[in-house]
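Schema walk-through. Below, the input block comes first and the output block second. Nothing else is stored per chain. Lengths vary across the set, and this one has 301 residues.
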Amino acid sequence: MEAKSTRSRSASESFSMEDFEKALEQHNYQFQQGQVITGKAVNYEIDGIYVDIGAKSLAFLPANEASLHAVTDPAAIVPLHEEREFLIIREQDADGQVTLSLKRLEIKQAWERLADIQDSSQSLQVRVTGVNKGGVTVDVQGLRGFIPRSHLVEREDLDALKGTTLSASILELDQTRDKLVLSNRLATRSASFSQLEIGQLVDGKIASLKPFGAFVEFDGATGLLHINQISKNYVQSLPDLFQVGQSIKAMIVDLDEGRGRISLSTKVLENFPGEMIEKPADVMAEAESRQDRARKAVLGE
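--- output ---
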């Protein structure tokens, strides 16, 4: 019985070792290009980092794939034995080694974050890195973006924008074409709109006069005082009533963020029809004391 038991144990142990060796030889780790895996850095070299990903051979992270930014200290990017995610950019070679990238994983994650920001209509901060005749190039969370001149608040001296940080909204996001177009104007306008409300009295200056009304600048925003909103009586000549640069108080009567339109009115501040034409100084001087009554009229309270 003892001999039989010993033979059984030996056979079992022998089978287990053989089975284990075959499993190591035949096991397919299914490491594929584009796959995100976890691993730990185990050794630093001049040209990269060796990473343990649980395979028979250590994976390799080239130095130029370690980060979106220049790497001077690999230990600061990938500390030894600290588990983190990597992206496989080259499948196993003849020695069973796969090539990894952190830079391309960061790029992939950055595009995903920007897609979420675009979907939620949020703005973000970008840094101006270059200038060309069409606008400025910007760093957007490590990605290269572009703001056309027409979508900049400051369009005259573009060189002065280099190195500065701007608020921007995403206009176009296309990872397949590596295209990222943004707008500084829309982000600024959106920020301005968030601080405005219908029935609010604003204090600004006449920026320009048009046949249909006057554009008024205030608190970084521009509103339109339409000719029909100046007085309850007909206004025959805007230049007779206003001058560019003139201070004016008006009430916000409509906000259209989608079109970027702010509609203003002074006629809601009048005590009688035609007061803005006959006694505009009185309306301006008493605008604050009249605003509660005017707000209720605008809001229908």
